[in-house]
Amino acid sequence: MIAFACASTDERLYRGAARRAVELVAEADSLLMRRRAEDSVIDAYSEMLVEAAEYDDLEAVVLLDQSVSHLGAAFCGRIRNLLGASPDVAVVGAGSSKGTRESEAVEGPVAVLSPWAARTLSCDPVGEEAFEALALDLCFQARSHGRRVIVSSALDVATSERPSWASAESRSRVRAMAAVRSKWSRDPLDTGVSGCSH
Q1: Residue 197 maps to a domain
Q2: In 10 A of CB 180, how many CB atoms?
Q3: Chain centroid to CA 132: how far?
């Protein structure tokens, strides 16, 4: 079973983008989770990860930003193929260059977590809240455990045309990403950071 999780702050954007995109690719047994992130986006994703982790038949958790408007054909099958390539793969994202490669972190508004990652990693609030900062932190956590992060052009992901990248929001996202990188510069990946479970 593949779970889809989206924390939304803009009802109109969510309904026109992420909800529709998920409905088009979800399978009969998919778990569709959504939280209105009125107080905290990070807390909303954390709650959904805990919920998904309780399912014994969990195959993956797709964390996606509310602006995602397209997830591509055969999305669930491609997730299974990418996660099944190696038991060490913990996080998968869409890649801008052709092919599949190992990466420091996923690119863009979708992060697919393996069952291990969903049950082991935590949504740690660092600085200002932004989906990309959350995804970056999860990737660094996974790599601190010796797991792999990969990106692949096989995942065809697109976002809404709505101008959600206004200058103020962009500055906020940049600050959030910088806060995550600062955190991990104090805890280098090769030191084996512990204590990342729910």
Answers
A1: no
A2: 23
A3: 8
CA atoms within 13 A on the CB side of 21: 27
Q: What's the CATH number where 58 sits?
A: 3.90.550.10
| Res 147: pLDDT | 97
Return the H-helix or E-strand segment holding 4.
strand 2-8
Two tokens, residue 24:
């088009």
| Residue 79 pLDDT | 96
Ramachandran class of 74: left when φ > 0, alpha when ψ lies in -120 to 50, beta otherwise: left
Best CA proximity match to 114, nearest among 144, 84, 137: 84
> In which residue are the tokens 């690719």 written?
25
- Chunked into runs of 10 residues, the chain (198 residues) has average pLDDT values of 95 94 97 90 92 97 95 95 95 91 89 97 73 89 96 92 49 67 64 38
In a domain, 75, yes or no: yes
Range of the domain at 90: 2-191
The token duo for 135 is 């995804």
What pLDDT score was predicted for residue 193?
39
Q: Give CA angle at 109 (106, 115), nearest 5°.
A: 60
Q: Compute φ and ψ for 182, nearest 5 degrees.
A: -65, -40
Length in residues, the chain = 198
Q: CA-to-CA distance for 19 and 75, rounded, in angstroms? A: 15
